[in-house]
Design goal:
Shape: globular
CATH class: Mainly Beta
CATH topology: Glucose Permease (Domain IIA)
Structural class: mainly beta
Number of domains: 1
Helix content: 10-25%
Largest sheet: 8 strands, antiparallel
Strand content: 35-45%
Distance between the termini: 23 Å
CATH architecture: Distorted Sandwich
Length: about 160
């Protein structure tokens, strides 16, 4: 019985939402992220525009401009994936959604595709912060790890400790 209960507990890990190098949030050239105003996390220097779910959960929000998506993990963490800096100004043009608010998602499932070339041609930075926005209300706290050549949905970038 105890074994079955352990198997059904939600995962306290987060995986990379994109392919690329995972860097410290402090290296993002935007004070909203590098000063952790939105929460603690990491950022990805993407080499591919495919954005996937970093964990099992529910899509809770998609920005009208499609540049950001929020997911609530099974463990209760609210995760914001913000594709690029100042990309709200692009009014959704370089983003193709594959999910909608309310959808249940699994680790590695495609959320959206970002046209990185269009983002760069518009003079925007494609660095993609991923932050846990409600960590202060959780019983667990995440330790984030950087990584070279992260594989979306596979490379572990955070583990929670209770």
């Amino acid at each position: 019985m105890l074994w079955n209960k352990l198997l059904k507990q939600p995962s306290l890990t987060l995986h990379s939402p994109m392919e690329g190098d995972v860097i410290p949030l402090e290296d993002v050239p935007d004070p909203v992220f590098n000063e952790k105003m939105m929460g603690n996390g990491i950022a990805i220097l993407p080499t591919n525009g495919r954005v996937v779910a970093p964990c099992n959960g529910t899509v809770i929000q998609i920005a009208p401009s499609k540049h950001a998506i929020g997911i609530r993990s099974e463990a209760g963490a609210e995760i914001l994936i913000h594709i690029g800096l100042d990309t709200v100004e692009l009014e959704g043009r370089p983003f193709t959604l594959h999910v909608k608010a309310g959808d249940e998602v699994s680790t590695g499932q495609a959320l959206m595709t970002a046209d990185l070339e269009s983002i760069h041609q518009a003079g925007k930075d494609s660095v993609t912060p991923m932050v846990v926005t409600n960590e202060k209300t959780l019983s667990h706290h995440y330790t984030f790890h950087t990584s070279k050549a992260a594989i979306p949905g596979d490379t572990l970038i955070a583990r929670a400790e209770e």
